[in-house]
Request: fold
Amino acid sequence: MKKTKMKWMVLAGAAVSAMALAQDSENRVTVAFSNPNRPRVLVVNQVQGSVAVRGYNGKDAIIEGSHVGERRRDSDGHGGMHRIDQPGGMDITENDNTITIHGDFMHSSNITVQVPVETSLKLKTVNGGKISVEGVSGDVEADNTNGSVVVTDVSGSVVASSTNGKVTVSLTKVTPNKSMSFSSMNGTVDVTLPADTKANLRMRTDNGEIWSDFDVKVDGARPSQSIDTREGHHRIRIDKTIYGSINGGGPEIQLVTFNGSIFLRKK
Amino acid sequence: MTSPMSCDDAKGLFAEYWSGSLGEREEIAFEAHIAQCEACRRDADQLGALWRNLELIPAEEPGPGVRARFYDSLAAFRQGMESAPKRSLRDRLMALWPAQPAWQMAISFALLVIGVGAGYELRPGAAKIAPDGQESSQIAQLRGEIGNMRQMVALSLLQQQSAGERLRGVSYAYQVPASDTQMLSALLATVNTDPNVNVRLAAVDALRAFGSSPVMRTAVIQSIRKQDQPMVQIELIDLLVDLHETDARPELEKIAADGQINEAVREHAKVAMEKLR
Reply:
């Protein structure tokens, strides 16, 4: 039997000394991914404030946090002392190659993270800012409530939603066979895919329009699948949902908005 | 060996443990780990249920329309294959292959059962002796077993950590028979509890295939006010309208009057009540 592996659990509190060593400025923390045999995952759970993640050419996560509306005077120092609490009131843990960051519930803070390019992301915030992702390769999940979601230059797959903001996603390369979904209640859903992307589409908007420069083959038969024949009468659905396919069909891609429009763009 | 077992080691041994092929010392270490590790115990329970179910793979009772439906799904499958992205067979198979040894064992075992069953049923001579009715029942049985495989894959995908994988599980749900109550309850659980709004939206759409199920209709009516996402609430209301579910009216009335609920949803409920008159 394999020798028991050491548990890699870096609790923020327990690891203050290690973190302090890795701090290269007062509001910046470098956290290593501990298990190179597992896929890298970054999880950010934010309540107040924005989340920005960018891929860079390195192997650690570089995390920066800043309180909003607080003048940063830490560098002034307090009589030569250095700050040892975590920036932006974040709580950071690392476990088996997953780094999890919980934002401060009480104060608004903006979290910026640089990650190695090949990292999957699960990002969430509620108020006070957008979620932005740039230049990573992996599976990206982003959920915002009152701000927008902007994903650019990503290869892999994306599942993104916002209640009141725009969802703008641009993929340079799509992982074959992965389902994707983009939704907003009140914002526009704007998705750019490589020209050769194969997919089955479900698109719905109530009060907006649907636009695409893809050659979308609209599937006329599918909505009628929900015809109710219980009482022997046929109900033909004439609604705002369009089923279709691009490049001959493939995995499901869902684009849903109620008050916004849908743009499906070809790269 | 005295060192305690890690979660990764334990997970790798599930299949061997259930099949009774662990050594005594490993078995004791495994049981000790399961006794003290809640996460592994939960995994063991879930996988164990599937493991036991494999022994009970039911042979579907063929109804009169089974033969026609089989050829329909065969045609749909062919169409799907033709329109699917041109990837090598190896890639496709690899994409379906789960990383957990217990799932691998489970699927291998199911394939073995199907293979032996098919081999037996299709052996030379069998078809010649069998009258027509029996031949179609063999096809129906195979079809049922393929349905079970799809269901297994879909159910396992719905439990994944990644929202993308769970979305894939939902799209598999379109391919299992609408009579599949286990699939239906898994979809309803997804609609009610999945943390990702996109997965919930996709699951609501997949429920359309189960339109004739009264269980589904009741569950959808009850789900609306449990949702915290207006998008999902509106999709659920639309589903009830499409199904012409007049029993939804009392609940829609409550929703329309509930000041806690998003205004657009309340408006939607009002319109839906008009349509369900």
User: Anything to note?
Assistant: Chain B has a mean pLDDT of 78.
